[in-house]
Amino acid sequence: RFMSTVTRSKLRIGLIPADGIGREVIPAAQTAIEALGSDIPKPEFTHLLAGFEYFTRAGEALPEETVEALRESDCALFGSVSSPSKKVTGYSSPIVALRKILDLYANIRPVLAVADVPGGKPRVDLVVHVTIIHKSNVLSVTDGLFRETVRAVPAGAAGRYDDITIAEQLVDSAVYRLFREPQIYDIMVAPNLYGDILSDAAAALVGSLGLVPSINAGDDFVMGEPVHGSAPDIAGQGIANPIASIRSAALMLRHLGYLKGADRIDSAVDEVVREGIFLTPDLGGSSKTQEVTDEIVKRI
Ligand code: GGG
């Protein structure tokens, strides 16, 4: 389902790079969107603050101005955030907060191989079914509720999902089977924590976390976000893979109904990955973020 068929004269996009390599890859996604010209309404970008680094300067991780600006936007792109591993008084994760404030109840993370990148598995045609991932044999209250809620959806939808087969699996065995036979899965539906872990694991199957995009979607707003984190070990070196963010921009546009723009970005990315010449170090290459971005933009 596309979010809206509203005709817009401009597309207001909030940009929240946040921490680490988020600041290097979100500008790449902006450049890709700008390259689409008249295939989308004229983009109007608003640069917004959030993150742990901002917290250390300003004492808050998600300023009210950022939330207000997002409420005035059509969509947004979020980079990555480096939340500390121990409790810091006054800090909480801005991405988690944004998902709640903007009612972005689904974080959708497609993991798709486009070429035989180093370490990637050959492409597979997937069997359709939907698998609910949980651990309700141990977490019977929380995961049990999740399992029952997902199972109740098709029943309540009066035949709308008749062509969908629902399976379920405990999260530990799902990790095992994901690595042994990834082709058995089409859609994995999981609570936040398992989904986060499983999507990183699935990214290994297509060669790099630097390739995998996501959108945070609700009924009224969509926010693209690379699946990877802020990668402090490589931040500032100009070698982060921009593809996850560029693909997140495409997913966001697709969700809004701008299919041609989204297709142009995805095809350009696929071409660059398939050619295998301009690749960042995570894919075994030696190209810089900017070089990969330039090659993708050239093909858009
Ligand atoms: N773009 C995804 C991302 O930033 N991942 C890092 C992560 O999981 N951070 C947790 C947090 O800081 O809330």
From TrEMBL:
**Gene Ontology BP terms:** isocitrate metabolic process; lysine biosynthetic process; tricarboxylic acid cycle
For the keyword Metal-binding, the answer is no
Q: Which family does it belong to?
A: Belongs to the isocitrate and isopropylmalate dehydrogenases family.
Name the species this protein comes from: Antrodiella citrinella
- Keyword Magnesium found: yes
Per UniProt, the keywords (alphabetical) are: Magnesium
Query: According to its UniProt record, what is one Pfam family this protein matches?
Result: Iso_dh
Family annotation (PROSITE patterns): IDH_IMDH
Gene Ontology MF terms: homoisocitrate dehydrogenase activity; isocitrate dehydrogenase (NAD+) activity; magnesium ion binding; NAD binding
Q: Sorted alphabetically, which InterPro entries does this protein's record hold?
A: IsoCit/isopropylmalate_DH_CS, IsoPropMal-DH-like_dom
State any GO CC term. mitochondrion
Q: Could you tell me what this protein is called?
A: Isopropylmalate dehydrogenase-like domain-containing protein
